[in-house]
Amino acid sequence: MPLIVTGTIGIDTVYTPTGHAERTLGGSGTYFAAAASLYGPVRLVAAVGGDFPAEHRAVFSKFPQVDLTGLEVRPGSKTFAWGGKYHQNMNSRETLFTELGVLAEPPPPVPEAYRDSEYVFLANTHPGVQIGMLPQLPRRRLTVADTMDLWINTAKDQLLVLLRQVDGLVLNYDEAELLTGKSNSVTAGRHILEMGPTFVVIKKGEHGALLVHRDGIAALPAYPTENVVDPTGAGDSFAGGMMGAIAAAKDANPASFESIRRALVHGTVVASFNIEAFSLERLTQITRADLDRRYNEYAVMVRV
Q1: Which terminus of the chain, N or C, has less C-beta within 10 A?
Q2: Which helix (H) or strand (E) holds 143?
């Protein structure tokens, strides 16, 4: 069952209490695709500039199930770049710089070979761009979008249009409050369902994630990782693990409460590996056996 992600590929500079990394591979589409590929094939639609380093392109070869047919290289443009610094508890960060580069240009089209994709993840970008992707994917069975405070503040009307066209939304608890005006995450989730989606996943960092679905509510703790090196991409790898697991399961109703609840466990496990090193380093090292081992450990911890 083809899984596709539309998102960003970027060059990140990250400072954390454990160290720093200069001009590493990042981007929402990058982290998502790498995580999802641990479960099966994933198609990536994104653009980079002519300055995109060859060594970053080579990292994708370590994830052979990532299809880069949809990667568009624009020789006269610059690759998206971002710099950030995390505070001591790593739950908050400050943006040091943002260089939009290709993100200020029209998005790449979905290749004809990708238009039969059935599982669609619209990684964080302007909701107008996300809406524009949907007609290019007429065979979608499950569509999930990510968003952030910037779009809630500057493009809320378009975001509300998008929410009427997707099955699920992924965002963090601050963004859920900003979107709905409700500080209680369950209440905020219920309000988001009234905007259109069948379910919403509210990420709460080290406190796990909350699923608010038309058919129920589930709360999952984070995996208790001791070695937290870099939280960058944790949310995107969480979504990648979730969607990768859903696509691999081939459920008759992929948007069902049980399907999403099970998938969140996979997302939690993948994200717990991602934060153990800078960039994609940790994800390049793990195998499906590693995932299964930690999944089983997590299942024992949350069993009642």
Answers
A1: C
A2: strand 142-146
